[in-house]
Amino acid sequence: MNGVLVIDKPAGMTSHDVVNRVRRIMKEKSVGHLGTLDPMATGVLPLVMGRLTRLAQFYSESEKTYQGEIRFGFATNTYDAEGEMVGEICDKPPSLEEIERIAAEFRGKIRQTPPPFSAKKINGVPAYKLARKDQEVELQPVEVEIKTLEIFSMEGDRARFSARVTSGTYMRSVAHDMGQRLGCGAHLSSLRRTSVGEFEEADARTLEQLTAAVESGETERVFVHPRRLLPAIPAVTATDEAAIMIRNGRPVNLPEMSKSRQVKVFRGQTELIAIATRIAGTLFQPKVVFGAE
Asked: Can you say whether the dihedral through the CA atoms of 189, 195, 201, 207 is positive or negative?
């Protein structure tokens, strides 16, 4: 079974847990995700299946949007609500105005250190495995970009926010670092991802909805329409003869749709067969071929 679907990940499951559940529901071994969500987090988790697992390489830099809540008063070792409290308790949380002022310092390109409890590797070992053994975790800061970060309410010690960020940005680190800047510990108390690239909440299905669709024989309706994938890359429709050549990895002439360096190649309206790169003029070389039926 080949396709892309979006799961509304529930809290308490890892992204890998969701992948395993979908493998069982869909009876398909080849399933992968397009960006991990922490177990505590909910929301948009795009999955690629079958031959289309090869699409994952095109989503490594996808922007993501979030809505969530930061709790001020104490920090945790995981930078979120699932961790153990560390440091001192701050009795008086900062004001909304103070938080908004600090939030402005995080917008744009910044250097961010990933949380010690993360999948970032140190000498080939995921940092969280070392952290769980109370071993020292020294992760290097990396450049990320926070394109928008808006604080839109403050109730008690909790601030609600929305954000749009580049791939690799940890909202847990944003929460933790904001607390450090304000001199009052903080951690991420809730997080929901609302989009990844072109995939949005409206596309998402719960695991229960996916199960119901499969049981009723309506599996196709849960998939994202292939023509919506990778919207920045123009789509062309190949002739049957050209489709055969593409599947054999041979260069072909394709309709001149734009001056784009790459095109998505379809056979018919819904079968994505390749991503091809322009050689010269209308001549394209298949870069990624998704195989035959």
From this structure: negative
> Model pTM?
0.91
Measured CA to CA, the distance from residue 57 to residue 92 in angstroms comes to: 46
- What phi, psi does 242 have (nearest 5°)? -65, -35
Identify the architecture of domain 64-196 in CATH.
2-Layer Sandwich (3.30)
In angstroms, rounded to a whole number, what is the distance separating the alpha carbons of residues 44 and 86?
Answer: 30
Q: Distance between CA atoms of 193 and 65, rounded to whole angstroms?
A: 6
Give the C-alpha separation, 282 to 154, whole Å.
56
**Which residues on adjacent β-strands are paired with residue 65?**
164, 195
Angle, in degrees to the nearest 10, between helices 171-182 and 96-106: 120
pLDDT tens-digit series, residues 252-267: 998 866 678 999 999 9
Res 204: pLDDT: 97
Determine the CATH number of domain 228-289.
2.30.130.10
Which uninterrupted H or E stretch holds 172? helix 171-182
- Looking at the chain, the domain(s) classified CATH 2.30.130.10 span 228-289
Encoded tokens for 88: 């001192």
Structure tokens at 232: 């920045």
Q: Which residue has the tokens 């053994």?
A: 133
Give the distance from CA 11 to its chain's centroid. Answer: 16
The segment(s) of the chain belonging to CATH 3.30.2350.10 are 64-196
Catalytic residue numbers read 38
